[in-house]
Amino acid sequence: MLQATKLKKSYGGTEALKGLDMTVEGGDIYCLLGANGAGKTTTISLFLNFIRPDGGTAAVGGLDVAEQPLETKKLLAYIPEQVMLYGNLTALENLRYFSRLGGRDYSQGEYRGFLRRAGLQDGAAGRRVKTYSKGMRQKVGLAVALAKQAKALLLDEPTAGLDPKASNEFSELLLKLKADGAAILMATHDLFRAKETGTRIGIMKEGRLVDELSAGEVSHADLEKIYLQHMHVGGRYA
Amino acid sequence: MKRIIISHETRQLFRSGAFRALLLLLAGAVAFAAWSGQRSIDRQIEGANAAAAFEDGHRNKMRADTEKYQARVAAEGGEYQFASARHGAGEGPPQGTNAGVVGSATAKYLRLPPTGLAPFSVGQSDIQLSYVPVSMNPAIHITRDNELENPVNLMTGSFDIAFVVIFLLPIFILAISYDLLSSEKERGTLAMVLAHPISLKALMVSKIAARAGVLFAAVLALGLAALLAVGDGLGSFDTWARFGLWAAATLLYALFWFALSVLVNVHGGNSAANGIALAGTWLALVVVVPTLAGLLATTLYPAPSRMELTTAARQAQTEAESAYMARLSEYYYDHLEFVPEGDERAMDFLTVAMANRNAIDKAVRPLHDEFQSQLNRQESLVRRFQFISPAIMMQLALNEISGTSADRYEHFLNQAFDFRDEWSDFFTVRFLRRAPLKPSDYDQFPTFEYQEEPFATVLTRLLPSLAGMLALLGGAILIPFAGLRRYPVATS
């Protein structure tokens, strides 16, 4: 569903991505680990066509993102670290706007249903979102993804700064989406969450994918050890 | 897709208290401007009425005297005679029988009728009077009352709808669009929106369309309300055609400012930087350039002072008076048919005065022509300069549309000069023939009816300003949309 082939990107002479190859299939939760500046956000931005690649391709559902940006965006949902909404509109109004932008419109009852499925308490749906906490905004972001019936989700550290309960609820929802067959790519710093929810784990360093693991085959302790080894100069095989 | 964004943006706008306050402010400004524009047109009309009533009263009194005199002649017998200027008061025929006295001691006020849209753009009508006196006096007297050197009027202009459109409307437009993209980017919603199948260009166009739609609907509604409140001739095609042109010019001008906002926004700067850049541009285009253009025009082509003109006229008069005997002979030499019968050297004060007037007219005419042509040169320089400032283009266009342009005024003055000749000839001939004016002759006095220019002429003069704005708008649209491809949606 999501495929990067020899994907390259540099910013003003600094190579942020040095020929990335990766694939995320439907039903996968692929967790990207790596230090700040490793190229995780750049990868997600390339799948969204927010930036143009300097080499290689990013493809969604077999379509080249750079060539068919609008077609590929129909398949995608994006949840950034901070889901930002229109503060003077209610959650329902925000959801309806984004959903219609994605080409789908539903009844009020259905919109409420999406918000409920995303875990937002019923009373909050009609309130203006400027009063919302970060956790609540992330849930609206998930509801947007649900309403859009996205085939692929791009998540950029979506649980950073959430309390453990909210973070757990978020992971539960991801598992449901995965069960529905969505391909999920999530950049995160949370090793525990990656091991718990992820099916596959990729470790990025300085613009390269240096390791790929199957979440089921490593223990928490091993994952942490491997990750830290990579982060030290020279990496795992030095 | 665009429709969804437009309705979303419109709702966002109306939810913002600042926008609602801005609309109220605009409504207040238009209401005050309409009132103030109408006041200055009303003042002109009142002035014209008062002046005409005074002069007409004077003439009616003379006519009444001739009626009494006619009745007396009919009762007592005798001849209905011409009043010599030299006889004493209370004796003989009244002065109203003397065409020279009637034609020079009373003036006929000619009016340039305001168009239905005149209160929208008062133009320079408070310094170029829309009513001028015509008598047998020299032609220069026609514009004598025009105050061309009133610096306060020239500096401040008047608070009319043209002022609101030219100065304030751009500020409102920039206030609602300076952060068109930058605010979405700073708020973080830009990435959320662009993760959906919508291009940046479509987003930009929709955002502008929503703002332009709301603002233009408001301006049109306010303009219509102003027209209904202070406009005139609401039943005539002319008024509505002018209002249509006003709306079209205002739309063009407004779109230019929106396009400028887009231009600044695609550079990817933050909202504060955009705001400063746009405020600076407003200052340059609306305040600095027009002022410099005006300054340049008056420096390159300084108009001779009206004071000089008056002094020259006085001097010519003194010279004329000192040589009046010679001039009288010269005048009679030219017009032998008017030499009074029986007395070749008959001297009449009014004949001398008439000869003097001729002399003064001749002496002052070159200076007056120079004065006018300097003003025309200034005007044409400003016309050429208009293409670097939409504010100048808009001012010229709105003056033209409201019928307060310098060209329409000149059209009127030319008719006034022609009428002055007609008026003067009418009385001169009767005076020199010593033909006594009878009461019935008062109905034969020449009358003036302003001949309006054909609408096509107005359109032709309007064309350069509108075309210039269109070109400027085209440039302001094309450049930014070409630059959109490089807009950084995500940073780092």
What is the fold's blueprint, element by element?
The complex is a heterodimer of chains A (238) and B (492).
Chain A: E1 2-11, E2 14-24, E3 29-34, H1 40-47, E4 55-60, E5 63-64, H2 69-75, E6 76-79, H3 91-101, H4 108-117, H5 134-148, E7 152-156, H6 164-179, E8 183-187, H7 191-197, E9 200-205, E10 208-214, H8 220-231
Parallel strand pairs in A: 3-8, 3-9, 6-7, 7-8
Antiparallel strand pairs in A: 1-2, 1-4, 4-5, 9-10
Helix pairs in contact in A: 3-4, 3-5, 4-5, 5-6
Chain B: H1 2-15, H2 17-76, H3 99-105, E1 108-111, E2 131-134, H4 151-156, H5 161-177, H6 182-187, H7 189-194, H8 200-230, H9 237-265, H10 271-300, H11 306-322, H12 324-334, H13 349-385, H14 390-402, H15 406-432, H16 455-483
Antiparallel strand pairs in B: 1-2
Helix pairs in contact in B: 1-8, 2-5, 2-8, 3-15, 5-8, 5-9, 5-10, 5-14, 8-9, 9-10, 9-14, 9-16, 10-13, 11-13, 12-13, 14-16
Relevant terms:
heterodimer, A: 238 residues, alpha/beta, Rossmann fold, six-stranded mixed β-sheet, four-stranded antiparallel β-sheet, globular, B: 492 residues, mainly alpha, 69% helix, elongated
Task: Describe the structure in your own words.
- The complex is a heterodimer of chains A (238) and B (492).
- Chain A is of the alpha/beta class and 238 residues long.
- Chain A has one domain (2-231): P-loop containing nucleotide triphosphate hydrolases (Rossmann fold).
- Chain A contains eight helices and ten strands.
- The radius of gyration of chain A is 18 Å and the shape is globular.
- Chain A starts with a strand and ends in a 7-residue tail after the last helix.
- The mean pLDDT of chain A is 89.
- Chain B is mainly alpha-helical and 492 residues long.
- Chain B is built from 16 helices and two strands.
- A two-stranded antiparallel ribbon of chain B has the order 1-2.
- In chain B, helix 1 packs across helix 8 (200-230), helix 9 (237-265) packs across helix 10 (271-300) and helix 9 (237-265) runs parallel beside helix 16.
- Chain B starts with a helix and ends in a 9-residue tail after the last helix.
- The A-B interface holds A 11, 41, 45, 48, 50-51, 69-71, 73-74, 76-78, 80, 82-89, 93, 97-98, 100-103, 141, 144, 148, 154 and B 1, 4-5, 8, 11-12, 15-16, 187-189, 191-199, 488-490, 492.
